[in-house]
Write the structure tokens for this entry.
Amino acid sequence: MKSIWNGAIAFGLVNIPVKLYAATESSSLDLDMLDKRDLSNIRFKRVNDKTGKEVGWDDIVKGYKLEDRYIVLSDEDFEAASPEKSKIFSIQQFVQEEEIESIYFETPYFLEPQKHGENAYALLREALNKTNKVGVGTFVLRNKENLGIVKPYRDLLIINKIRFPEELREYDELKVPSIKIKPGELKLAISLIEQTSEPFDSEKFTDTYTADLLKIIEQKAKGKKLKVTMPQEATEKTFDLMEKLKASLAKNRKNVS
């Protein structure tokens, strides 16, 4: 596993040297784009807009358009913007994780202590476990400032990126119902929720779509014909909520028994 960031967690006046690693990977199949006429790979080229010629990576720079001209930025410029944030995740406050709404959560990363940081790493992990708190702070990754939390996960610490408030879109344009719910329907809905409630177990959930798609690929490779049963589209424009809820409860009871 290759680290993607080397830096430190600032815990008060204590700096904990750490390495950052990607904690997730895609479970989807790696599908290539092909020309359907001869199944040749489709390549994407970096082309100069004026000359139409391909541009090598060594000749590509990043720039910001200011008024009518581009200002080219170097790696040194990015580091100079906020040098301390490029190498340090500074914990600014501690909060209960439940205080942060789920819509803010983004990407998790594993943290590994570097040499001489093991004791402080273990101390922060244990202190967070005992207080049931997470540390909130910012750090720079890939030339972008990120907001994140430091929290224990099993026997290690992780950083979970969370979104800045300005990254959340407004939803004023959406048509959200304002309807008075019937007490009987609400009671049945609550019963259905309680009937199917249990402690969360991530092992019960798997990416079945990718597995099914791989089976189709294997069948096609063997020249087998596919038998596809498409689900019927819902044709009901209106339905009786009470009847649907009662039927759902009855079905769940039957599955449990």
User: Anything to note?
Assistant: Helices lie at 75-81, 83-87, 118-131, 183-195, 208-221, 241-256. The first helix runs from residue 75 to 81.
